Amino acid sequence: MTGVRVAGTGLTPFGNAPERTSRDLFAEASSAAFADSGVPREDVEAVLYGNFMGELAEHQGHQGPLMAEAAGVQAPATRYESACASSGMAVRDAVMRVRNGEHDVVLVGGAERMTNLGTAGATEALAIAADELWEVRAGMTFPGAYALMAKAYFDEFGGGREDLAHVAVKNHENALPNEKAQYQKSIEVAEALDAPTVSSPLSLYDACPLSDGASALVLTSEAYAEAHDIDAPVAITGTGQGGDRMALHDREFLARSPAAREAGEAAYADAGIGAGDVDVAEVHDCFTIAEVLALEALDLEPVGEGITAARDGRTTADSDTPINLSGGLKAKGHPVGATGASQIAEVVKLLAGTHPNSEHVADATTGVAHNAGGTVASATVHVLEVAE
Amino acid sequence: MTGVRVAGTGLTPFGNAPERTSRDLFAEASSAAFADSGVPREDVEAVLYGNFMGELAEHQGHQGPLMAEAAGVQAPATRYESACASSGMAVRDAVMRVRNGEHDVVLVGGAERMTNLGTAGATEALAIAADELWEVRAGMTFPGAYALMAKAYFDEFGGGREDLAHVAVKNHENALPNEKAQYQKSIEVAEALDAPTVSSPLSLYDACPLSDGASALVLTSEAYAEAHDIDAPVAITGTGQGGDRMALHDREFLARSPAAREAGEAAYADAGIGAGDVDVAEVHDCFTIAEVLALEALDLEPVGEGITAARDGRTTADSDTPINLSGGLKAKGHPVGATGASQIAEVVKLLAGTHPNSEHVADATTGVAHNAGGTVASATVHVLEVAE
């Protein structure tokens, strides 16, 4: 089993670009990743690509070969779809393939075009990540689902809207120096509390935006990186995946994410680390409550205590374990299929000292990326470590 | 690296079942596969699932966890989408994962619900496997695309509609004893030639039908099968994948499938066999011309000579290398996401002596399954061998 290195990362700006196709977005992200990596396109042996709603937003399925073409790569390509965890799943298979010697060099990433559908259209399209027969037909959309989860959390453990507002404030603050972020804009707690309700108890500032964008990573085996003198100081040392019942009503607890716990435990075990070793993390904060649940599932906070983490400064940029230094989905944006691989890209740059927020984690050696699908019916976690 | 065994296979009937959801179909196929395997559901470590058009046909994405649930399995699940090669790609990743020790037991398969869309609706949905911007908007659908390929073949190598009719006649003949086949019905060459034109030069009998259905396989490591005394006489010994430009107009030749050639060469090399070792094959005959192109890409026929293979009896049930003894997509049916894994299931039964057509390949030890997406912009090939 060989080590897996991240040789290069590339992201488009995340934001409103309704006129751009996913192939256009992925061409930009992959070009940036190749330029960053120093790896020639000809060495790529496979393309693994995540996309969620291309069938609805672009009337385009079978995006694997299309994205290989957009990236200027002649290699077999596969599309992975796991709702908002689509490119996280692509990264997971990519890591397993490189680790096991199937390939020396892979291009992995994702893209999503969403804003061309408009807010109502995109919200409806996103709902296909829930159970159509038992949830969506009853009127459930994701703001409503996460509102149920937030309410269940408050009922079981306490906490309230102001605690969640601190998550939003923190992530907006983190996004300020991130030029690729959708919102480079500070917000205040009072502003968040005064924002229009999306689905009670969640307001507009508890929700991530709709975004267009793409992400790409060039992964290589350790042996390839050494043989070709590729500068790739960060390794992916752990990968894990978890699953849960699809519909919320089939779960024992609404305020828990067992799929994320399963993925985290598997990834930690795979890397041979514990939660206490984590120096920095990007977690899937599609809603502020999702960040709280993720912290607890990853054992970065005890169950029932994650709600105060941002408010009390345990996850802010100046804390021991900053969370979502990129700005998170909340402020950086969430082009669904691109998100999982983009989180890996952020952690790589944070650990390599090339992120605009690297100053906050100068001694960090271990990072985690957590990517979730739907109401966390799917989750994948990756551990990244400085290798050189 | 451990060997990979097929411990059990399960298929629903393929055909018109517009009232059945994909979860209903997959529950049936997976139950059959578990019953056939003797492997308990609790031992499954991952579910890998192929589906193509669930977003359009059922307004349901994120089908991975939904299908784990339908199968009664608590394990992380991933959905693969590569148009008509969706479950072939799922099998490929499943093989790599078991081979490399990531998992001992996986459930892999696929499902598609199509006929609820009606003929025009399903044809339009299928078109998302082509290039939306450069092909579909210009009016191209798959009957038209394969008609272009057939015409190019006739122009370059000769042959004609009557040759293709023999492919259809052969595959209908093969389907007669296959109780899961959509058409258990003989046809005559004259009948095929008289059938209404779908897209010249292709007529109705050159095209596979629209179908609903599901397929499932229980794969285990060799070590698991031995330790648990599982009867699994057939091994998957080779896997390969190929890719090509998405749009037909970007290819050098219309009457070639380089992606299938790449996949076949890789799979043969992986298994350490040559085309001459193949005793039986299931190939992706979404149209009769596709079977011809597949035979040539897999080196089972020289380039330019595959067109006469059925007519001259080189691929019929009584030949040395029968092709599509299941009836193929043409007569067995083509529930898109289910097809790739179902082809593996057919080859397994043919090699194990449990297929209604096994008598035609009594001494066969090596089989091949070829699954293609779109106009073969994606292809995957698997080699199966009798191991015990």
From TrEMBL, chains A, B:
Annotated GO biological processes are:
isoprenoid biosynthetic process
Q: What UniProt keywords apply to this chain's record, in alphabetical order?
A: Isoprene biosynthesis
Q: Which Pfam families match?
A: Thiolase_C_1 (PF22691), Thiolase_N (PF00108)
GO MF, one term, reads: acyltransferase activity, transferring groups other than amino-acyl groups
List the InterPro entries. Thiolase, Thiolase-like, Thiolase_C_2, Thiolase_N
* Domain Thiolase N-terminal: start-end pairs: 5-222
Where does the record place the Thiolase C-terminal domain? 240-385
Q: What is this protein called?
A: 3-ketoacyl-CoA thiolase
Q: Which organism's genome codes for this protein?
A: Natrialba taiwanensis DSM 12281
